[in-house]
Amino acid sequence: MSIYNQLLEKLKQYKQKYYKNLLLKGTILTLALCLSAFTLINAVEYFGNLNKILRGTLFFSFVGLSLVSFYSWILIPLLRLFELNKPLSNTEASLQIGKYFPEINDKLLNLLQLGELNKSESSLIQASIEQKAKKLNLIDFKTAIDYRINKKYLKYLLPPFFFFLGIFMIFPQLFTESTPRIVNYDEEFNAKAPFSFSLINNELQVFKNEDFEVKLKMNGSAMPNEVFLVNENGRKIRMERKAGSNEFSYLFKNIQKPINFYFEASGFNSNNYEIQILERPNLSQFTAFLHYPPYVKKADEQLENTGNLVIPQGTQI
C-alpha cells in the first residue's frame, strides 16, 4: 500500500470516529429529550385526567418527537457510519482536520486535489504526492475527535434521569396509572377518585334464605357524604352510615340467588362484586344401631331415619 493510500485509510478512520462521536452525542440527547417528554406527559395526564382526544394528542406527540429525534440524531449517523447514506466526503473531512491541526491547514485538501488530478495526469506528479503524503501521514487524524467532549451534554440527561428516578421511587402512581391511559388513549377511563372503596367483608358468601350485611369503609383525603349500593338492575340503594365513622353498611334480607353489585359515591364507582349462594347440606339417610343393656332383656335393634329416640339408660347407640 502506497503512502498516499495509507493517508486515505487514516482519513476513512477519521470519518468513522466522526460518526461514532455524533452517534454518542445523539444517543445522549435523544434519551434526555424522550425522558423529559415522557415524564411531562405523564404528569399532565395524571393531574389533568384528560379525555380521549387529549390523551391521543399526547401519545402521538411523544411518538412523533421520539421518532424525529431518533432519526435525526441516531439513525442518520448510524447509516453514514456504515456508508449506507451519503457520508462525509474526503474534502469535507480534510477541511475539518485542517481547522483542528494548524500545521496542516490546506495541505491535506491540496494533496487530495492533487491525487484526483493524478488519475488523469499519469505518473507525472506521483512523486510529489508521495512526498507530501509522507509528511502528513505522521499525524493521527482521529485525535481531532475526542469522545470526552460529549460530557457537556450530560447536563441535559442527568437532571431528567434523576428526576424521573426520584418520582418513580417516591410516587410511582404518576407512571403506573398515567402511562396505561396514554397508551390506550382510545379507551374510556373513570376519573380518579379522591377516596377509595374498601370492602370490610372477608367473604361474600351466604346460605340461601339467610340475611347478609355488606360492610364498606371509605378511605381518602375527601370523604363523600353518601354512598350507594347499585345492584345488577341499576337500582341505587343508599347505604347506612355508622355514626362518627367512614363505615357504611346495607343488609340484604332472605337472599335467594347470587347478587351482583358495586358502590357509587360522588360520581365515582368501585369494582364489581358478587354475593355467592351456598346450599346447606341435607342429610338424606342415616341408620342407628341400638345395643340395649342386659337388664332390659331386649334384642338389639337397627332403626332407619329416626331422629327422636327414647331408650333405656345404658343403651349404646
Structure description:
The chain is α+β, with helices and mostly antiparallel strands and 317 residues long. Helix content is 43%, strand content 17%. The chain is built from eight helices and twelve strands. Strands 2, 4, 5, 8, 9 and 10 form a six-stranded mixed sheet that branches. A four-stranded antiparallel sheet has the order 1-3-7-6, with no helix packed on it. The chain has a two-stranded antiparallel sheet with strand order 11-12. β6 and β7 form a beta hairpin. The chain is elongated, with a radius of gyration of 42 Å. The model has no long low-confidence stretch (mean pLDDT 85).
Percent of residues in beta strands? 15-25%
Q: Approximately how much helix is present in the residues?
A: 40-55%
Question: In terms of per-residue confidence, which ranges show pLDDT below 50 for 5 or more consecutive residues?
Answer: none
Number of helices: 8
Characterize the overall form: elongated
The major beta sheet can be summarized as: 6 strands, mixed
Structural class: alpha+beta
Radius of gyration: 42 Å
Mean pLDDT: 85
> Based on DSSP secondary structure assignment, what is the total number of beta strands?
12
Query: Secondary-structure element sequence?
Result: HHHHHHHHEEEEEEEEEEEE
Distance between the termini: 113 Å
